[in-house]
Amino acid sequence: MVRAHTGAHRFARAIRVVGAGIALAAAAGAAPRADAARVPVSSRDSIDAPIPGRAPLPAKAGLWFLDSLVGRSGKLRALFVSPSHPYGVDALQELFGDSALDRPGVYAVHDSALTQPLCFISLVPFAAKQKGRIGSYWLGTWPHERHASRDSMYADPDGFIEVTPENEDTWVSEHFQLRDFLTHDQEDVWPKYLALSPKLVDKLELVIDDLNAHGVHVTHLTVMSGFRTPEYNRRGVGKRGGRARDSRHQYGDAADVFVDNTESGRMDDLNHDGRVNLRDARVIRDAVDRVEAAHPDLIGGVGLYHATRAHGPFVHIDTRGERVRWSAR
Question: What gap in Å lies between CA 174 and CA 302, rounded to an integer?
């Protein structure tokens, strides 16, 4: 269910919370962004403007909050809120009240001050998973759930987005909806639960921008595989399935994608050589390389995959925090 809010008074108060972060970003020397101007900031707000019940935002938090709103791409439309993101919690509470934290779901802000809808998504905590399930939805066990990994890259997800038939079409960015990242199983089980990193969505938007900037026309980037529950991923672990036990797909920061402007279900001929093969996947990989060079905080893995009878060539993209490259059949 998508919960909408149009109350001007609460919206203005929440924007002051957002405004403090934006003002701090500007004071810290962040480059101005056209998309950032979509969030109105009152001239009365200053870099020292306090958030009710909280000390003034430190500069790093201000930068984080601005990027969480619109991302490096300027095209994010959703802010994922969990207790580990306190400033997102403040904004959610200002808009929808304290009960929003206890009622996970999608909270949409509709206001003439915003040129695009903005959604706050309150996450279901990871602890809600009991014996591998949340309700009737089967997730399984994360690789290091019983014995925590020393590598933070493999920490359990903060929480899950509760996806329903009513909210699965929610836009999380200019080109992507919640439904694009759902695990491909349990079709008739609702609600479903999704782990999704905004950094991944942001990176995919930046890849689209880069391709267009380099003469590769992209209107549709298909997500062939987004989030995979550990149970779903387990079925393909090993030589036959080709999935890694520690697959990044389980952490919501990986997607297998291909450019498909005609939505035919196959990769387009990106290099215009009359064929669709791994050379077209390399065009996407080159775009990822340029994005990571410009935004090192989005660095991650890129894997190239050949076509099979079941699918065309595709590219794995993730934001694991270290540069990894591979090619596989």
Answer: 22
